[in-house]
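pasting for ref
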Amino acid sequence: MNKNFDKWNNIKKAINKNNNIIKFQQRHIIFMKIGTNIGYEQDGKGEEFLRPVLVYKKFNNRVFLGIPLTSKEKSDKFHFLFEYKKDKKSFAILSQLRLFDIKRAKYYDGKISKKQFERLQKKLLNLMVTPLQKEGECTEAICTNSIQQKDLDVKYNVLVTGANGQLGSELRMLKDEFLMMNYKCFFTDSSTLDITDFQNVKEFIELNKIDIVINCAAYTAVDKAEEDAENADKINHLAVKNLAEVAQEKSIKLIHISTDYVFDGENFKPYVEDDATNPTGVYGKTKLDGENAMREIDPLNSIIIRTSWVYSSFGANFVKTMLKLGRERDSLGVIFDQVGTPTHARDLAETILEIIPSIQNSKLRIYNYSSEGVASWYDFAKEIMRMAKIDCVISPIESSAYPTPAKRPHYSLLNKAKIKKEFNLSIPYWKDSLRDCITKILSYEC
């Protein structure tokens, strides 16, 4: 095979279509069990034209990253020189990356966003320094099993609650361009599904044969919750209990989103999942009650993800507020003695979609997730103005100078080591994610 590395179409005649080969529809991958890191795909010219795809393990044991190869030298940022054998070179085409699902024989071939490209580019630079092993050996990834037709027909029904919020909106945007080709998604909000009503939840899940629930619904008005504890408890606690009970009864995978507000913010080092909780307000208490209800019910294959300082190009959030105020005022005072990490909802949404196939646990597990790095609200605001090129002076103020009905944690840093290790995740730095979000917001305004 290596002798014909630059003459891939010559091997077309040698392919036995009935022996461990999966043939897809037009433009889809033809992936062959060959004992190395190389698969094949149609190059757009039809079945008679094949080109190689270098395959690397990505995300989990099912989803793989495919990099089309070419022998044509081209000097641009989308082509990387790749040495697969001594004195044998080709070019990896980063502009045409594929993510494909070995188990279900599906693959994603959408446009690559700037953020996705930059993130993958860094990883690929590291991958490219290691050449393939000798012919016939497996290295990092390989399809070792043929795929049966029944595997192609597997479908999953996914319920996303709180679909009009920041995280739910990001999941909605990602569903068609990420890894959910086999998933039929039901996006609901309070007007279409009342998750505080157990019977309503159960009937919806049974009627639509839901396999996975991503609970993004939450009462997030932190200050308002101090005077509206009953409604906050219904959404943050009782609704979670309802979802957990149905998930347990129906063996449904449940991903529930929680918050750093379950901690009191008095720590001196980043919180780990097992640290003692001690919420200081109604919002944090009701979120913790929801966690505890889920713990007690303990549905199979379910997790809780605690996150912090969420923002997005959707909905109302700190980033949008700063952009608006920065244009209206010459100066702003922003709190500097509350420290944490901003989290782009899109990053969290991508992570959820990435880890869903790997969630296989008998007992409930809790994970922390936020962007990398640390910032105060003052730092956050300064960076927003700088990136958006808004001429507004940001001055640091103490929390005491801006009293609120609910007490905020002074220290909200979350240790992400557990989720990174167990799911092999790479989490972006908060400024990089913020730049992507602001770019998107400003593009909407143009």
